[in-house]
Automatic annotation (TrEMBL):
Annotated stretches, region: Disordered: 1-37
PANTHER family: SHORT-CHAIN DEHYDROGENASE TIC 32, CHLOROPLASTIC-LIKE
InterPro entries per UniProt: NAD(P)-bd_dom_sf, SDR_fam, TIC32
Coiled-coil zones: none
Top-level taxon of the source organism: Eukaryota
Lineage: Eukaryota, Viridiplantae, Streptophyta, Embryophyta, Tracheophyta
Name the UniProt record assigns to this protein: Uncharacterized protein
Amino acid sequence: MSQPGTILSHVGLGPYRSESTQTYVDPTRPGSRPGQVESARAEVESVRQLLASAFLQSIYRRYNIASLTQERKMWGLSRKGVSGFSSSSTALQVTQGIHATALTAIVTGASSGIGAETARVLALRGVHVIMGVIDMIDANNLKKSILKEIPTAKVDVMKLDLSSMVSVQNFATEFNSTRLPLNILINNAGICAVPFMLSTDNVELQFAINYLGHFHLTNLLLDNMKKTTGESKVKGRIVNVSSTGHRFTYHGGIHFEKINDPLR
């Protein structure tokens, strides 16, 4: 049987779906004071990995899944869609032959993992990429790496904390003030299997980042995308990155009235 830790990325529980946790440390917890942030981040990551591994082990036992290959067959993940691509297709393969020098794209959570590769390949195809991130250091390092590989690339980094609706509003206002067009919005940032925390808006953290933040962002940018479509005659595209983890839900569904309850 595969070790759960080796397939976290496949089901959306791996590090590539997470951004820096520094902003999310509760002020009453260790790590909120100077000098303790790194240890708190390490503690959160350790707990997150344990929870993710336990989650996958329970799922594998429940569905009698012996390997990642069996899991992929079980959900039909290797089957090609009408586009001719499957879940195993790479960004390079999907965009092969596409030249998009006139397009502008926003990619959230672009400092690592899926977001980073998406940003890199879009830049390679000529797209002006805006990286909406919480970890500015990692994002700027990635930008340097992209420019080293693709000297003509157009890449900008902008601060975006999807757990804060104020930050989302500020990001959208700043982007719209640039008067750049918007052809593509890729809502990629996300977290999973983290200890219970509330966002700055007192909403359960994963729900705030993965859903509410992106919903608010999309609405704030929609007029720009519609305007761009009308002027360029090129249809806009909004992509919401998801995970096979959505298949493993509570039998009773989501209890929205209890979503902020740590005892649920």
